[in-house]
Design a protein that fits this description.
The chain is mostly helical. Helices cover 67% and strands 0% of the residues. The protein is built from 7 helices and no strands.
Length: 163
């Protein structure tokens, strides 16, 4: 028998895990980060409906919530930046789609661009993880979202995506 105590989860732990795993999409058996990004699409559509100012306001609430939930989930899972934590993908995708024109082609292009930049961890995204805790978990995805957003706008500018 192991001497390690298995802590029973409290209601607060369940709330943290619901948030951190993107409504449990992070429990998807393979590619949970991709599943978390898919879960981000309806969140984006809800955020985008009321307009840019409310989008920013909602994101300003989501960002510290994602820092907190990610940090707490790391402790619950007993692992640094567990793959099941996908609130960072949701936040990163929301950055990707900020002020991008509405349309399915942007949603799809943003999805693939974000996944590319999230996986590739182009500097300084990869170094953000060194911050540690929930902030470190989320910030590399925020940087990936900035790269993906700028790439979307470049594609629109050069005419690869319609305006």
């Amino acid at each position: 028998m192991s001497t390690r105590q298995i802590k029973e989860k409290t209601f607060s732990d369940h709330v943290v895990l619901f948030i951190a795993t993107g409504g449990y999409s992070g429990y998807f058996p393979f590619a949970p980060g991709t599943a978390g990004t898919v879960a981000a699409i309806p969140v984006y559509l809800l955020f985008a409906m009321p307009g840019h100012i409310l989008y920013l306001l909602l994101f300003a609430i989501l960002l510290p919530l994602s820092f907190w939930a990610s940090g707490r989930a790391e402790k619950i899972f007993g692992a640094k930046d567990s793959g099941m934590i996908v609130i960072d993908e949701i936040a990163g995708y929301l950055v990707t789609m900020f002020m991008v024109p509405a349309g399915w082609q942007y949603v799809v292009a943003g999805f693939f661009l974000f996944r590319f930049f999230d996986i590739s961890k182009i500097y300084p995204a990869g170094s953000m993880e060194k911050i540690g805790g929930g902030v470190g978990v989320v910030m590399d995805d925020i940087v990936a979202g900035v790269y993906a957003n700028l790439s979307l706008w470049l594609l629109i500018y050069v005419g690869a995506l319609p305006w």
